[in-house]
Design goal:
The protein has 304 residues and is an alpha/beta fold. The chain has ten helices and eleven strands. The strands form three sheets. Strands 3, 4, 5, 6, 9, 10 and 11 form a seven-stranded mixed β-sheet that branches.
């Protein structure tokens, strides 16, 4: 296979445009002898004559025109590659893989993707739903670029592998049946619900969050039913089977908003903190920065 040299092909293209070796040398800040030498070397590499003397000038051979026809296509593709690379460097192109826990996907990730499609259509996002235990292993293995989790489940700031980025302090509201006596009570506090039957998971982070919040309010919650999914929890609340603490960004997207009353708690209202994490050093990636900015913007918007 012939040896194709991009720099020498560029000189040959310039000669076609400028017409003379002298004009080519001026355009490329070279000496005429250097231009001639480079073209002679290119002719030797390709194994065909590229120039033919015509008086004091040179003309391109048919072989040179054939070479240039293909070189033009190569340079056109290189221009496209250069434009895409520039866009990538400036965060206008690239793929970012996001791993996120279930509630965060509709509440944070999907709105961020919609905003990115409008503002930065060259940045694509691939989403993978995963709980913290899995998502941080995916992040460490390079399978995702951003991991979203509760702060309580994230690696500590002392872990040198990851950089944590705070995203959201998500308030926890209490879900009550519509006909519950406290559904319309003023200044409702968590302590007012100490005698109620509760619905929460048997283990895991949400069980810990519910128990910790209630204990901070002065009581241990009596778990009447066990469930982990918000659809199941809210269905049981609607049926009058118990009450539950529900993160606001999960409650905002429930399917039957009128069937359950979501009450904002007063002074003892608990919150859960949501963070993003990325591999240390990756925070300088422009496309990743675009996604983080979009997630922060969504996080700052009030839940509807």
């Amino acid at each position: 296979m012939a040896e194709w040299d991009i720099r020498k092909l560029h000189i040959l293209r310039t000669l076609r445009e400028r017409g003379t070796v002298t004009a080519t040398a001026e355009a490329l800040s070279m000496t005429p002898s250097a231009v001639s030498q480079q073209l002679t070397n290119l002719s030797r590499q390709l194994g065909v004559p590229l120039l033919r003397a015509q008086g004091r000038r040179v003309r391109l051979t048919d072989a040179a025109r054939l070479v240039l026809r293909h070189a033009d296509a190569v340079f056109e593709q290189l221009e496209r590659a250069d434009a895409e690379l520039t866009a990538y460097v400036h965060g206008e192109a690239g793929e970012v893989r996001v791993g996120a826990f279930p509630t965060a996907v509709p509440a944070l990730v999907v709105p961020a993707v919609r905003a990115l499609r409008a503002a930065h259509p060259g940045v694509s996002v691939r989403v993978r739903e995963a709980e913290a235990e899995e998502v941080y292993q995916l992040l460490a293995d390079g399978e995702v670029d951003l991991a979203l989790s509760l702060a309580a489940q994230a690696p500590t700031a002392a872990d040198p592998r990851f950089t944590r980025v705070p995203l959201l302090a998500d308030p926890l509201d209490v879900a009550l049946p519509r006909d519950h006596p406290l559904a319309s009570a003023e200044n409702l506090r968590l302590a007012d619900l100490a005698a109620e039957p509760w619905i929460f998971g048997g283990s895991g982070p949400w069980s810990d969050i519910t128990r910790t919040a209630c204990e901070a309010a002065g009581f241990r919650p009596r778990r009447e039913h066990t469930a982990a999914g918000w659809t199941a929890i809210l269905a049981m609340v609607e049926a009058g089977m118990g009450i539950a603490l529900v993160p606001r960004m999960a409650a905002a997207r429930r399917e039957t908003p009128g069937a359950v009353v979501m009450r904002e708690l007063a002074a003892d209202r608990p919150v859960r903190h949501v963070v993003a994490a990325l591999r240390t050093g990756a925070e300088d990636g422009a496309a990743v920065g675009r996604v983080l900015d979009a997630l922060r913007t969504v996080a700052c918007q009030p839940a509807r």
